[in-house]
Write a structure and sequence with these properties.
The complex is a heterodimer.
Chain A (H helix, E strand, L loop, with lengths): L5 E8 L9 E8 L4 E5 L6 H8 L7 E6 L12 E4 L11 H12 L3 H15 L14 H12 L6 E4 L8 H15 L4 E6 L2 H4 L4 E6 L2 E6 L1 H5 L6 E5 L5 H9 L4 E7 L2 E6 L18 E4 L4 H8 L9 H4 L12 E10 L2 E11 L4 E5 L6 H8 L7 E6 L2 E2 L4 H6 L1 E4 L11 H11 L4 H14 L15 H13 L5 E5 L7 H16 L3 E6 L10 E6 L2 E6 L1 H6 L8 H20 L1
Parallel strand pairs in A: 3-7, 3-8, 5-6, 6-7, 16-21, 16-22, 19-20, 20-21
Antiparallel strand pairs in A: 1-2, 1-4, 8-9, 10-12, 10-13, 11-12, 14-15, 14-17, 17-18, 22-23
Helix pairs in contact in A: 2-4, 4-5, 13-14, 13-15
Chain B lengths: L6 H17 L1 H21 L7 E7 L4 H12 L3 E6 L2 H9 L5 E5 L3 H6 L6 E4 L4 H25 L25 H31 L1 H6 L5 H31 L7 H26 L2 H18 L12 H7 L8 H9 L4 H25 L6
Parallel strand pairs in B: 1-2, 1-3
Antiparallel strand pairs in B: 3-4
Helix pairs in contact in B: 1-9, 2-7, 2-9, 3-6, 7-9, 7-10, 7-11, 7-13, 9-10, 10-11, 10-13, 10-14
The chains are: A alpha/beta, B mainly alpha.
Chain lengths: 573, 376
């Protein structure tokens, strides 16, 4: 295209001489007035490509042309760039941040006031313009970061994961804001690991492990799997078994739990099989469904993992117990005058998956840490596997497996050493420990990285190792904090295959996530927003509250947030 | 990259930097509270003078001379005689560290003294060599003074006494008050902290928080960026040097015999390599923890140990002396001490200032080379 603002061809970048390239022969064309999506899981090479376009990294091979010059010599006043973590000075106020970037980009003095007013209006930050940037909520920081990148209308706008971790309302607002402000003149590159965001872009570049899998309009890729997606409605308590059976069939390429149904992607040549051909119980209803970008991505990667979990096969059956496996009663945590979690109550029965859903900073992890005995509640009580948190912290902890956010592994210990350590930490010794370590090493294919430092192995393997460490002692309860954040969809599928398998063994699972899609795997979900529970129910019940057909969990969340805000406003009035 | 220097960007960055300094309590702590703390610490706490060392006395002779000498020890302004008794009982006091030495006036001392001799024994704790040296030296002094006094009373020169008397006069610091040279040292420490440690930390922090990345993607030149870091911390360094000086003069009566202008010139010259090193460290590490470790090892410790501030360079082994030539603080301490206790001596100042600026040039050149507009 002749009007391209930025192009790159044949980009190769290696960070370690003998390691795999971070980018391998990647090309991109960014044109004005369009949203170009840079899509892929963490570690795919998105940030490296953006930094190359911003002239901050020089590629080993390949050419860049930004506004007619190479990236390192391009006119930077015409490039708006927002790095991850937004690039804001947290000890400066909103308006000071804007002024700084306006001066650095050379915004003419006579355009300043009008420009600031417009941006502050759009971001709804006018009221907060004298607040320190560090004191803004995550969503507001992101808007301010984008505002700083747009302070002098650029020709090229580079946004590195602008929407990660914020609530879906802020995500949609941010998207609308960028579209509106960028208008017809600006070429926008929007990087994301959310595949649903990719569907809304005008054109996408799909990266995986440094290689370009697809480049073009997202719909064209999604179309490659149309007519191959079906939803099978089965009795609710049978969906996990149904998914396992279906995934083990040759004709099924991929599948997930979606509320009360199982959503499957069939192989190209599978035709339209009946419920019984898919291993489903008689009377299960098969309906065709709309394909998603993620389906096509998985298709490109050669399909999802099989349905049976080797981990679950060897796992002990958790004995029955009449008490709920996890219980929270009015759990509250205050830090000074800040309430991080307020009056959180729920109860999870044995063999159930319960989800805490909400944006970053909502209070999920706080609730989690109280239930693990890592934080002492300011009020309320809780129990895990029958052990009261206040009285029997150690017993409660011994009976759960905890997989912390960002995988709490020792990065400078090898995979084997991490396994040894966690086996010991959970009280496994001697032959028991060795057997447990061998078992998880085999199940999670950790053998090839056994002697590598955990910090250096691919993200997907870190995630597997973290789960391995949490389940070695075969606990009856599993706590998973943002377990699949940033990993590619195949790894996420594989992860949930294991979890589903463990649940069949009556393991109880508490999971936090800000991925709305992940909530579909849960039996019940509670939505947490600004420290409070705003709704609890099965995924289907919550989706029904969104008030439209085929609603996603995200729609449900947005509707419920609005309802709770209206409610608060009514009470205040 | 923007080739032209743009005063507007520069101003914006400077304003940002000063705002951040004003809002960062840790920076103000290092710049203003630390100097006050150091000056008071050095003024009151760390005192390298020997004032009244605790000793024990064992007098084994009952004669008049022995009692008179014992009295001389009791009266001495250098000693605090804590215990008197037999050696056996005093040994435990020495071992327990209650006293730093035992002075023994042996049996037969009075007879020997009458004959013009008379030795005493001094037992010291060799595990504390400084104190041991002081005790034995000063004990000898007390005995010699006592002997001279007795001789004078009798109107004769002591036999075997020195024919030539050495009369010590300490110029510039007649009382040999250590705070006179500790104050310049405190100034050196504070300026090293601000110039190297603080500067290294603030730039490393920009890397860690991701603001560096955002800044580098704007048209700002790396020169502008570095100047915007250098000027505020230069001002801060001079500011806290002033705090040190005013306190030292006002509270502890340290003289400033040279001109304030000379002091300013010397301090400014030292800040050039200090800031250069800070920039170099942060550009090379991009991590606050590593930056602070390296700043401590390369700037702070050499400034403390190898600058001649605590340990005299002349009494170091030859190879250590050679190393001190690479420590910028070495060129700061002599002119700083001179400007405080002696006065302006530009023939001493100028070569040192030249050396400091030379180091500064090297560090800045390296920092500019390392601090490229690149992430990886």
């Amino acid at each position: 295209m002749s009007d391209a603002v930025a192009t790159a061809h044949g980009i190769v970048k290696r960070f370690a001489k003998d390691g795999a390239p971070a980018l391998d022969d990647v090309a991109i064309i960014i044109t004005p007035g369009r949203m170009t999506g840079l899509v892929g899981p963490d570690g795919a090479g998105k940030t490296t490509l953006i930094r190359i376009l911003a002239g901050l990294i020089v590629p080993d091979q390949g050419e860049t042309a930004i506004l007619g010059r190479s990236a390192t010599t391009a006119d930077r006043s015409m490039i708006g760039y927002m790095p991850q973590r937004f690039g804001l000075y947290e000890d400066l106020t909103v308006i000071q941040n804007l002024k700084l970037y306006a001066d650095l980009r050379g915004l003419p003095a006579d355009e300043r006031q009008a420009g600031f007013d417009k941006l502050l209006d759009f971001t709804d930050l006018k009221r907060f313009q004298d607040r320190l940037a560090g004191k803004l909520s995550g969503g507001m920081k992101q808007k301010l970061g984008v505002a700083c990148a747009l302070v002098r209308t650029p020709k090229l706008l580079l946004l590195d994961e602008p929407s990660v971790g914020v609530d879906p309302v802020s995500r949609r607002e941010l998207w609308a804001m960028v579209k509106e402000l960028a208008g017809e003149q600006v070429a926008v590159l929007w990087s994301t690991s959310y595949l649903d965001e990719a569907e809304q872009c005008d054109t996408v570049l799909l990266l995986n492990e440094g290689k370009c899998l697809y480049s073009g309009p997202p719909a064209a890729l999604t179309d490659t799997v149309k007519d191959r997606i079906v939803r099978v409605f089965v009795p609710e308590d049978g969906r996990r078994v149904a998914l396992r059976k279906a995934l083990d069939m040759k004709s099924v390429e991929d599948g997930v739990v979606q509320g009360a149904s199982v959503r499957l992607m069939l192989r190209d040549d599978a035709g339209q099989p009946s419920a019984s051909q898919l291993g489903m119980p008689d009377g299960a209803e098969v309906r065709s469904a709309r394909p998603r970008f993620e389906d096509a991505f998985i298709d490109l990667l050669g399909g999802g993992p099989p349905g049976s979990s080797a981990l679950a096969r060897d796992y002990r059956e958790i004995p029955a117990n009449d008490r709920p496996a996890i219980e929270a009663k009015g759990l509250t945590k205050r830090f000074g005058d800040f309430t991080a979690a307020e009056d959180i109550s729920f109860s999870v029965g044995r063999g159930q998956v319960f989800g805490l859903l909400g944006p970053n900073g909502a209070g999920k992890s706080t609730t989690f840490k109280m239930l693990c005995g890592l934080l002492t509640p300011s009020g309320g009580s809780g129990s895990v596997a029958g052990f009261d948190l206040r009285k029997a912290k150690a017993d409660a902890r011994q009976s759960l497996g905890y997989m912390a956010q960002k995988f709490s592994l020792y990065g400078d210990l090898s995979v084997q050493q991490n396994l040894n350590f966690f086996a010991g930490a959970y009280g496994l010794v001697g032959p028991d420990a060795r057997a447990a370590i061998e078992r998880v090493t085999e199940v999670f294919h950790l053998d090839k990285y056994r002697n590598d430092n955990a910090g250096g192995i691919p993200l997907g393997y870190k995630q597997r190792l973290a789960l391995a460490c949490a389940v070695m002692h075969q606990p009856p309860v599993l706590f998973l904090d943002e377990p699949t954040s940033g990993v590619d969809p195949i790894v996420r599928r594989e992860f949930w295959t294991h979890i589903n398998g463990l649940v069949e063994r009556s393991v109880t699972v508490l999971v936090t996530t800000h991925f709305m899609e992940e909530a579909e795997y849960c039996d019940r979900v509670t939505l947490i927003y600004r420290a409070r529970q705003i709704a609890t129910g099965t995924p289907d019940e919550l989706k029904a509250k969104a008030g439209k057909d085929d609603a996603t969990m995200e729609d449900a969340f947005i509707a419920l947030i609005k309802a709770s805000q209206d409610d608060t406003a009514r009470k205040a009035a | 990259m923007s080739a032209a220097f743009d005063p507007r960007r520069m101003r914006a960055m400077l304003a940002k930097e000063f705002t951040q300094i004003a809002r960062d309590p840790s920076t103000l702590l290092i710049a203003f509270v630390l100097p006050i703390l150091l000056i008071f610490l050095f003024g009151y706490g760390v005192n390298l003078d020997t004032a009244r060392t605790s000793i024990a006395l064992s007098r084994q002779d009952d004669g008049e001379a022995a009692r008179s000498l014992a009295g001389a020890f009791q009266q001495s302004r250098w000693f605090d005689v804590r215990e008197v008794g037999t050696i056996g009982s005093l040994k435990t006091a020495l071992i327990a560290g209650k006293v730093r030495g035992i002075v023994v006036i042996p049996d037969g001392f009075s007879r020997a003294a009458a004959a013009g001799g008379g030795d005493i024994q001094v037992i010291t704790d060799g595990s504390m060599p400084n104190s041991a040296g002081f005790v034995s030296g000063y004990a000898d002094g007390v005995r010699a003074t006592w002997a001279a006094g007795r001789a004078a009373e009798r109107g004769e020169r002591p036999r075997g006494g020195p024919a030539i008397d050495v009369d010590n006069r300490y110029w510039f610091n007649p009382a040999l008050a250590s705070r006179y040279f500790l104050v310049p040292g405190a100034i050196a420490i504070v300026m090293t902290m601000i110039g190297s440690l603080l500067t290294a930390l603030v730039i490393a922090r920009e890397w860690e928080r991701g603001t560096m990345e955002a800044i580098m993607a704007t048209p700002i030149g790396m020169g502008e960026f570095m100047i915007s870091k250098v000027i505020p911390y230069f001002v801060l360094g001079i500011g806290s040097m002033t705090v040190c000086t005013v306190l030292a003069i006002g509270v502890f009566g340290v003289p400033l015999r040279g001109s304030p202008l000379a002091l300013l010139a010397i301090a400014s010259a030292f800040l050039v390599p200090a800031l250069g090193l800070g920039l170099l460290i942060s550009a090379a590490t991009k991590n606050q923890f590593v930056a602070s470790q390296i700043a401590l090892l390369t700037a702070f410790l050499p400034g403390l140990l190898l600058s001649g501030f605590l340990f005299e360079i002349g009494s170091m082994p030859g190879w250590v002396q050679a190393i001190t030539y690479l420590v910028p603080a070495r060129y700061l301490i002599p002119p700083l001490e001179t400007v405080f206790v002696a006065g302006d001596n530009w023939r001493l100042f100028l070569p040192n200032i030249g050396a400091l600026l030379g180091f500064g040039a090297v560090f800045f050149t390296l920092a500019i080379r390392v601090n490229r507009r690149r992430i990886a």
